[in-house]
Amino acid sequence: MIELIRQYWQNYLFTDGFNTTGLAITLWLLVASIVLGFVLAVPLAIARASRNRYISGPVWLYTYIFRGTPLYVQLLLIYTGLYSLHFVHSHDMLNSFFRNAMNCTLLAFALNECAYATEIFAGSIRETSHGEIEAAQAYGMSKFKLYTRIILPSALRRALPSYSNEVILMLHATTLAFTATVPDILKVARDVNSATYATFQAYGIAAILYASIVFALIWGFRKLEIRLLAYLKPQGH
């Protein structure tokens, strides 16, 4: 394993000499999909928690489809399925977008992440204390201020433990990127294995890298939970 690290460490971490590969690509996919998913999930979670079925219904359908089908199938549909449609490859902008493996992979990951995050956040919004809402209404807050100052800050903090697990699962899901020829950690490990036939060592290095990222995520989210959820701890007398 040490010899493989010496020979292929750049491939696993940053570049193969021509293109960005390995850890850098995996982290980019993770961060980009999480950020895009979060930005989309917040307004969708508000709609999902609405009592109006015409507002919550379409969001429920979207989350049901993306949570009810495997991410691998979604990636294949977006990467190869959509491009086979005539209106996609006949339109210059769509053709350019869906010909790029990274674009398709990121789109699939972001939509999948958004679906799970939407349900997590919507559940936290529904669990917001009625006392907090009534107090804000008594204070004269508009619905916009009620959400931006009371409901969303409280809901997002309480959703942090569940959301941190979803982020880790999203990291694991990035291993599917190699099926779209995206040079992530697993793709590099497969290439190294093909070149050296050192299967245990090639995939062992990949496992160590993934485990290191997970430990860093757990540590970071734990620090956030201690800071943001301190008010939920029982107070001593």
TrEMBL record:
<feature type="transmembrane region" description="Helical">
    <location>
        <begin position="59"/>
        <end position="85"/>
    </location>
</feature>
<keyword id="KW-0813">Transport</keyword>
<comment type="subunit">
    <text>The HisPMQJ complex is composed of two ATP-binding proteins (HisP), two transmembrane proteins (HisM and HisQ) and a solute-binding protein (HisJ). The HisPMQ-ArgT complex is composed of two ATP-binding proteins (HisP), two transmembrane proteins (HisM and HisQ) and a solute-binding protein (ArgT).</text>
</comment>
<keyword id="KW-0472">Membrane</keyword>
<feature type="transmembrane region" description="Helical">
    <location>
        <begin position="25"/>
        <end position="47"/>
    </location>
</feature>
<keyword id="KW-0997">Cell inner membrane</keyword>
<dbReference type="InterPro" id="IPR051322">
    <property type="entry name" value="AA_ABC_Transporter_Permease"/>
</dbReference>
<keyword id="KW-0812">Transmembrane</keyword>
<feature type="transmembrane region" description="Helical">
    <location>
        <begin position="200"/>
        <end position="221"/>
    </location>
</feature>
<dbReference type="InterPro" id="IPR010065">
    <property type="entry name" value="AA_ABC_transptr_permease_3TM"/>
</dbReference>
<keyword id="KW-1133">Transmembrane helix</keyword>
<dbReference type="InterPro" id="IPR035906">
    <property type="entry name" value="MetI-like_sf"/>
</dbReference>
<dbReference type="GO" id="GO:0043190">
    <property type="term" value="C:ATP-binding cassette (ABC) transporter complex"/>
</dbReference>
<dbReference type="InterPro" id="IPR000515">
    <property type="entry name" value="MetI-like"/>
</dbReference>
<dbReference type="GO" id="GO:0006865">
    <property type="term" value="P:amino acid transport"/>
</dbReference>
<dbReference type="Pfam" id="PF00528">
    <property type="entry name" value="BPD_transp_1"/>
</dbReference>
<comment type="similarity">
    <text>Belongs to the binding-protein-dependent transport system permease family. HisMQ subfamily.</text>
</comment>
<feature type="domain" description="ABC transmembrane type-1">
    <location>
        <begin position="23"/>
        <end position="218"/>
    </location>
</feature>
<dbReference type="GO" id="GO:0022857">
    <property type="term" value="F:transmembrane transporter activity"/>
</dbReference>
<keyword id="KW-1003">Cell membrane</keyword>
<protein>
    <recommendedName>
        <fullName>Histidine/lysine/arginine/ornithine transport system permease protein HisM</fullName>
    </recommendedName>
</protein>
